[in-house]
Amino acid sequence: MAALDILEFLDLGRAKSIQSDSEKLSNGEAVILNEVKEKDFGVDLIYFNTDEETNNSFPAVFLKKVANFNDEIYLKDIAETQRKIWNYKKVLFLYVYSETEIRIYNCSEKPLIVTKDDFDYKNELQEIEINSYQYSDKQQLQELNKLFSRIAIDTGIIWTLEDAKIVRDKINLQKRVDKYLVTSLVNTAEHLRGQGLEIDFIHKIILRSLFLLYLEDRGAAEKDFYNQIKKDAESYFDILDDVTATYDLFKRLENHFNGNVFTLEQDENISREQLQIIKTCFIRGKEKNNNPQLFDDWKQFRLFNFKIIQIELLSEIYENFLAETDPTLKEDSGTYYTPPSLVEFILNEKLPVNNGETEYNVKTLDPSCGSGIFLVESFKRLVKRYENAHSINNLSDFDTLVKLLKGNIFGIEIHPQAIKVAAFSLYLALVDKLDTKNLWQNKNYRLPYLVNDPKEKNEQKKGRNLFCRDTISDLSSIDELQNFQLVVGNPPFGDKNLLDTIRNYCNKENFAKEKVLPFLHKATFFAPHGEIALIFNTKVLTNTGGTYKNFREWLFIQCYVEKVFNFSILRKAKKNFGGQLFGDATGPISIVFYKNHQPDNRNDTIVYYAPKTWVRSNVIEGLSIDSTDIKYIPREECQKPDTKIWKVAMWGGMNDWNLIKKLNNSKFQTVENFIVDNNIKSGVGFQLLTQKKDTPKYSETLTSLDYLDAEFVNKYFTPNEKLNSVRNAIKTSKAINFYKEFYNVNNITEIEQLTAFRRLGDIDAYINPHIILKKGLENNSVCASFIENQCSFRDGVYGFYTNESKIDELYKLLSFFNSKFSTYYLFMTISSYGIEREQIMKNEYLSIPFSLNDEQGLKIIEATKELLIKMKSKSFLNNDFEEQELKNFINENIDSTILNGFNFEEYEKVLVSDAILYNLDLFHNQEKSKAILPATEKQPEEYAQIISSELNEFLEGQNVFANATVYNLKGLKSSPLMMIKISHEKTKKEIFHSEESIKKELDNLDKKLWEKKSTNIYFRKKLNYKRGDDIYIVRPNQRRFWSQSMAFEDASELILEILNGVHDEA
Questions:
Q1: Which backbone phi and psi does 385 adopt, to 5 degrees?
Q2: Residue 762's closest CA among 800, 789, 725, 809?
Q3: Same structural domain, 162 and 189
Q4: ∠87-91-97 over CA atoms, to 5°?
Q5: Handedness of CA 433, 434, 436, 440 (dihedral sign)
Q6: Among 82, 219, 941, 1010, which is least packed by CB within 10 angstroms?
Q7: Would you say 1046 and 943 are in contact if contact means Cβ atoms under 8 Å apart?
Q8: What is the pTM of this model?
Q9: Residue 1059: how many other CB atoms lie within 10 Å
């Protein structure tokens, strides 16, 4: 196969040549191609991912052609190209092809460290190679096409396909340039701290080094610049060999550029050896505990290239470095790093630039600016708007840039080190617009003082843009901090280590003691007539506690909320997976867009976006938001402080919301009513001692009883073989250490009897008939278990008990807890499950609606008894019983009876079943969930049956019928989409099974359904389009989109579309 053919084979003929005429490219393509050409990546082609709607283009794959893979000249060139792409960070794969072979290289993997002249490129390149394919091998070509073709790139099949596991295993996102530079800086700081240097001083040296290397790599240092400071020096790396020369350069930096970041202190002291540690870090990175090497020759090899590394990445890198070197800062302050893609996402909404916007004087505040990532991006956008307004390609006038910066960009931050990084980041953004070749020559380029720190004694050095203050303190006397047009940011959140100002503010407003709430509230004083977009923790939406309700009442009634994005699912994203958006673990977050005043045109709904998965269907990392994740929530409902709609709409649809409303608004009992009426009591388990200050409590009964560990609790029934000595409860290191000392033994096994406890729990719960209820879901289900014998349990589970005369009611409760209904209700409604913790509180279990008449109750009791007999008779310990038979028995005799107790209609029963089968499974299992597997053969037909039946019911009496066509699934397993057709005809027909092949059309259509909102966030639309009397229903090829419950939901929407005449014509 010829080299040109390999591109056709992979369907990459649309890849753009580096030599392409800019006029024939989109604006986005031209910008990237020019950048890649200017920075000499050494590639020949770029395959772009293009958003058809906005025409924005993003590089997905780089391609390079070589004569062969034998000559060192080509191998060395491949290694250099991979290094540059690694510094670029945006692209995962480099395809290198010859006339006979193609090799896929991993651009997320740290580049080869070239250490000597006789470096073995042939062997070493295998470390960064994902795979190689010979054109002569048909089997290899088949795999190549499956994993690396255009459609594989566009659909991100490597993230989900089992055959692609070998590829996934080789992609380590933790070794990308941003991660590795942070790791190197942290290791360098630790090394220097170990040598006695203060961390603040280390930060200063590293900030100066970053800035100097940035200037050098961007061409700011002329050939003789370093030679004037140290003889024969050609680079900052040469300067670092000499302490005196280094400080001569630092003085030049301070005098020439001014500002708040580069100030020299009188008592600074660093050795040549310590400067070598910094030099090594920036040449080849620094692993933990490795030492500077003699062969660190920057002329021979440099890992990091600051000409290629994006400037926004530098502030992101430094923010992460700051957090890693001062871990208590994050914990104490509640501040978390904000990924650039999320910043871009928010500002695309509030400060867009893609449509020629020209308003550049927009006074903007970040009330907790951290290292300034929101401020930097806002500044860059205002510059772009200025360029739009004045029809210029590049604003490079220093005075104009400074005026824009000082007049519009403001931040407040309590931590002095962080605010210096914010200033540094803004300086970088400003300098990036200038002609770098004149930076050291032009004396007028003196950076403005931005930071206002009360501790600064020199009034001339006090800026008026970045205020080192407590945001929640009284700032009314600072004129600059009034009347903003835009407030954006990521305020701190959490309920620990509260400052007095935050505590007092919450008390005054009667809000929950939560850091973020005063920031959200005070933003309306900063921008009384402006717009606000702030990140907050999702429990503010879902927590139904009184003081949280007070805040929501203020937010949704006093303010005008436009839209809410719930990104809670991201807290479960894997660090090394393609769907990751956050580079750092955070709590569940949401974004709220709101304003202090009510607009003239008030919308009756609030737009709510709540993605259910972080699994992307593209090789470009990011988060996908499907159309099913978008809800339009009635504003009136949102204004009810105790509403559960935020949680229900996160995981369900409007049919689920209507069902939950029906359950909550009816006169149904609750579990709590049931247990009170039947004299069932709930008891807590015992607690172990772990601290000497606790007074031991003793009980002969508890000491002598068998013990059941929560780990061994099985659904419905736990056999006696699982019981053990109470001594086995001692498992944590704290408990083990305490009891070894308490009983004066070397090993826990030497304790004959455990007699001392911190709390004894409810002894009656241990000795009466009882069931044990786990705090979390297990295998996507509530787990309650009947215990035949007396036994104790820890406080990590809930116990429910009664006397022998009421044991039948206990059986009823056991099955009710274990039912699909209980799991569904809890998953849809409780405030924190699926958001910030996977535990269910006892009061939440007690809140479940309960409805069984006498006949149904008796049926549940008898079925439960029969089930327990069945389970006892099986080889339960080995799990070697007919599981499916038991599931069928439970479904027919218990789950169905409980659903019938609520008089559920058929579609409501389907809602319950599908929510557990797909949504709950997706939450727990994500990329391994059955919900995102390709649709089964039966699903499109079941879906078509429901949707045509619902449409025919709607069309009844109109002499027209909705008939469905489903397509042959052969060949569609790897297709990103699936389709059925609804035809309006005069006679009613059975479902028609078409043999027509539609794979190619679906593959092409898939690209058009993705809309890119920011670098890492994608919206995927559903498509119902009309051609004549036919409606084509196109959905992603995942089981969750072809479920029976989705058919009911889609039918409702389709009927609405038909009524409104809303359809996309083909």
A1: -65, -35
A2: 800
A3: no
A4: 105
A5: negative
A6: 219
A7: yes
A8: 0.84
A9: 9
